[in-house]
């Protein structure tokens, strides 16, 4: 993981333009985004955002956003845009680093996350790393001609610390 750079804008724009990558992402990613919009997301809007690099090349983005420092909460996201890296453990490895940072350097007490139910890759990562399902927003997002559920999850600092020992 590293800081996002201007050179990441074009490949990230290409990743988001691929339906196989973007179909389970937030509603914002369901329409074409310009390079200027991607640049704003990558280089200006983020609280904690990192480029994911694998084998010396840009592979995606991960972040903590929507900080609530009074309550010690942040929201997690990850996009592995390079499909050749799917199913190889990269998502879990990156998520571990983000959670270590969230509960270590940032001192958060809780990290929230969500994913659309058909996204099996996200389900596996969240389950493997100990996120707890808090709820389900039924028929929350329109994807591939149907309404799909959004799964709401979180992990607490003491749950993460307990897993790491």
Give a written overview of the molecule.
The structure is a single chain. The protein is α+β, with helices and mostly antiparallel strands and 165 residues long. The chain has one domain: Gcn5-related N-acetyltransferase (GNAT) (Aminopeptidase). Helices cover 32% and strands 35% of the residues. The protein is built from six helices and six strands; from the N terminus they run αααβββαβαββα. The chain has a six-stranded mixed sheet, sandwiched between helices. α1 crosses α3. The longest helix is centred in the middle third of the chain and has 14 residues.
Instruction: Let me know the number of strands.
Output: 6
Mean pLDDT, to the nearest integer, reads 88
Low-confidence sequence ranges: none
> For this structure, what is the CATH homologous superfamily?
Gcn5-related N-acetyltransferase (GNAT)
Secondary-structure blueprint:
Blueprint: H1 9-17, H2 19-22, H3 35-43, E1 48-54, E2 57-68, E3 73-80, H4 90-103, E4 110-116, H5 120-128, E5 132-143, E6 146-156, H6 157-164
Parallel strand pairs: 3-4
Antiparallel strand pairs: 1-2, 2-3, 4-6, 5-6
Helix pairs in contact: 1-3
